[in-house]
Amino acid sequence: MSIPSDFAAFSASLAADMPDALWPEALKALWYDGKGDWNGAHNIAQDIPSTHGSLIHAYLHRKEGDKWNAGYWYGRANREFPSVSLEAEFRALVTEVISTTTK
Q: How far is CA 4 from CA 20, 67, 89, in A?
């Protein structure tokens, strides 16, 4: 399985049992979240020392309702706390990670 070309291809990959081992960690974290495995996603995201890692970490804490922790991680990524839905943020994160991975 190669890196998905877009959000639709990423969504289709959720039918698999595991993400591709060659995917970047940020995409794997989002894949686990897409499968409903918050803990699996968090375990990966918390160890990604990049803006993507901080953004995914922030999104996950926002999703669990921990606004303070989410705000901290959005700050680490130099981003504002989003006003969009979690679904829109998830889609944007997947799209951003794919676009920066496939360049």
A: 10, 30, 18
